[in-house]
Recover the amino acids of this structure.
């Protein structure tokens, strides 16, 4: 099968084109460095199956960042039959270096001038046929986001792929490329994105910029909860009805052990976790709007000076924000950072970002133990704790992991995501969630049920059950933090994935929905619950995070640090809180 690779500068629209061509769901965002792994999908061109590869964006074919290494290794190992270089038609002058390097390679090449819609709006006109003749390669002008010009690309792809390459041709020298661009592109003197300029005057204002940014973030969280909470309650109601109306009667005559396993184990665990899906999806939808519009790049710019004091930079800040969704893509996103010191320091702090899986745990506990007025404040304090532990860690380790790389920020214009882009992203997140659900939650919940109900005959989750014995061993360590054996078991499982924590509590307490909330509020005090939440926030992130840190750093020592340090910090923070709170507040 022939192979076609999409290559180009970050944020040029490669993944958008990849999705448009193949119907795939690659992640797209208005931030340089979204794609970090090779993605492939199949595509029919002129009756032949072709493999299309989406690559991370690069500035320089001979660069040395992780992203650039991924691309150069790919080109060496795979030598694709055709390279499609995706260029942003609005700033061709800045992509000349890369275009020149690719022409010099002497491999079959096709140039896509993307963002035709924006170029037109800016008054840029391009003589495509002339440019193609001067450069000696086929050129297509199109808009991957809106779909204009796709037939032309298909025709060109078919033509180029059926030709046998002609290696005798002499590559163009860089001055010739520059001359060709100048001859065939008519750029108005002032090609500015007017809306972007006007918005940036306010959003990047020296005094107003940061307050506006935090205001926007606060609104985002408020919005997620205002819309998400009723939906979540609806889901809970749905599951309770399902249980009482259909499952209970159906299993009425089943043996007690099977009845317990299916209803109090599998169903209770799944239902409890599933009721959080609306909140998670909304959170991702809102975040994807912030990311897609280009506001993230503004956030990086605004926070850069402040982050420098902690040994980090604006990009680290954006990765921390992305970590609020899920730590794993945020960790992979650090590949855009060239300096190893800065990259590792950023990777060390990302796991403190309060990811959506942990959010689930906190929403549950705050709803169970605090009033409706207190709940948002409690959640806010946990976000603060997340930021303080991240920044404190950076301060502590910044001399060990020093940044040697000055940071040049690419400021993309503001773009409005299409409904299709937003929905696609939302769907991806649901799929990711369900994927993890099937992998971790079901298995985890089943395991918890087995541990809490064996050996046969014990009362569920009692001291004599396997789980009780396990909890008993951990007791001396966690007792000074006010964390009881039942919660300890939940924490043990949370080590695998935080999504399991609430599901396993449902199994341990043998109930779900409102009943579970009531049981927990009766058996756990608010100080104990807060101490538990602090511990759950800070302690070692899930297994996927650890595996990603190991993969990205390729260092066992660093990975060990990334596991041990948060554990120690979690213990210290919960200990300090619990001892102080019981002393002064009770
Ligand atoms: N107006 C306009 N925007 C586009 C077009 N193609 C892509 N975009 C936007 O450009 C931004 C970057 O798109 P991506 O497809 O993520 O770019 P990429 O080249 O894959 O970027 P990296 O993965 O970071 O290298 C997104 O906000 C897209 O919505 C287009 O034809 N017109
Ligand atoms: Mg991409």
């Amino acid at each position: 099968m022939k192979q076609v690779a999409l290559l180009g500068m970050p944020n040029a629209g490669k993944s958008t084109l990849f999705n448009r061509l193949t119907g795939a769901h690659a992640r797209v965002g208005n931030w340089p460095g979204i794609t970090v792994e090779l993605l492939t999908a199949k595509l029919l061109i002129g009756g032949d199956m072709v493999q299309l590869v989406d690559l991370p964006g690069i500035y320089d074919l001979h660069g040395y960042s992780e992203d650039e290494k991924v691309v150069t290794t790919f080109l060496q190992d795979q030598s694709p039959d055709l390279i499609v270089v995706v260029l942003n038609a609005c700033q061709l002058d800045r992509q000349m270096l890369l275009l020149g390097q690719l022409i010099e390679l002497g491999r079959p090449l096709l140039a896509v001038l993307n963002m035709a819609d924006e170029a037109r709006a800016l008054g840029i006109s391009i003589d495509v046929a002339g440019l193609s003749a001067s450069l000696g390669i086929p050129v297509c002008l199109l808009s991957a986001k809106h779909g204009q010009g796709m037939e032309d690309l298909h025709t060109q792809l078919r033509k180029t792929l059926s030709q046998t390459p002609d290696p005798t041709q002499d590559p163009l020298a860089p001055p010739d490329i520059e001359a060709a661009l100048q001859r065939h592109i008519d750029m108005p003197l002032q090609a500015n994105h007017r809306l972007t300029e006007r918005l940036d005057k306010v959003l990047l204002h020296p005094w107003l910029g940061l307050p506006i940014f935090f205001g926007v973030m606060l609104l985002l969280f408020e919005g997620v909860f205002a819309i998400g909470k009723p939906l979540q309650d609806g889901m809970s109601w749905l599951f309770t009805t399902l249980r009482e109306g259909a499952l209970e009667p159906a299993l009425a005559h089943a043996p007690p052990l099977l009845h317990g396993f299916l209803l109090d184990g599998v169903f209770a665990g799944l239902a409890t976790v599933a009721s959080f899906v609306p909140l998670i999806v909304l959170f991702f939808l809102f975040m994807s709007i912030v990311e897609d519009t280009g506001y993230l790049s503004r956030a990086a710019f605004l926070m850069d000076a402040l982050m420098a004091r902690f040994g980090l930079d604006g990009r680290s800040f954006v990765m921390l924000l992305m970590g609020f969704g899920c730590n794993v893509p945020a960790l992979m996103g650090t590949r855009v950072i060239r300096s190893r010191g800065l990259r590792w320091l950023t990777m060390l702090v990302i796991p403190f970002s309060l990811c959506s899986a942990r959010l689930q745990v906190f929403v549950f506990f705050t709803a169970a133990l605090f009033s409706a007025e207190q709940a948002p404040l409690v959640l806010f304090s946990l976000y603060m704790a997340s930021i303080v532990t991240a920044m404190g860690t950076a301060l502590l380790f910044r001399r060990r992991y020093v940044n040697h790389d000055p940071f040049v920020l690419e400021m993309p214009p503001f773009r409005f995501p299409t409904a299709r882009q937003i929905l696609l992203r939302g769907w991806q997140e649901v799929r990711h969630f369900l994927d993890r659900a099937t992998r971790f939650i079901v298995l985890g919940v089943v395991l918890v049920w087995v541990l809490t109900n064996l050996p046969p005959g014990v009362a569920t989750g009692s001291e004599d059950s396997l789980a009780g014995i396990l909890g008993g061993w951990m007791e001396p360590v966690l007792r000074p933090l006010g964390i009881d054996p039942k919660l300890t078991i939940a924490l043990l499982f949370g080590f695998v994935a935080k999504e399991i924590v609430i599901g396993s509590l449902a199994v341990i307490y043998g109930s779900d929905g409102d009943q579970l909330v009531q049981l927990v509020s009766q058996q756990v005090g608010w100080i104990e619950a807060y101490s538990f939440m602090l511990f759950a926030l800070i302690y070692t992130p899930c297994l996927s995070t650890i595996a990603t840190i190991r993969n990205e750093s390729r260092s066992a020592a660093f990975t060990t640090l990334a596991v041990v340090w948060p554990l120690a910090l979690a213990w210290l923070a919960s200990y300090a809180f619990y001892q102080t709170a019981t002393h002064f507040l009770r």
